[in-house]
Amino acid sequence: MHIMNLTPDSYPIGTPGQPWGATELAEWRARQMKQRSYAADVLNAIDALRSRFDVSTYGEVRYGDEHYPLMAIRSRHWQAARPCVLVTGGVHGYETSGVHGALQFVDQHAQPLSEAVNLLVVPCVSPWSYERVHRWNFDAIDPNRSFRESSPAQESVALMQLIASLAERFTAHIDLHETTDTDESEYRPALAARDGLPFEPGTIPDGFYLVDDAGNPQPAFQQAIIAAVQKVTHIAPADADGQIIGSPMVAPGVIRYPFKSLGLCAGVTGARYTTTTEVYPDSAIATPEQCIAAQVEAVRAAIAFVVAAQRASADML
Question: Ranges for the Peptidase M14 domain (predicted)?
Answer without folding.
Answer: 34-310
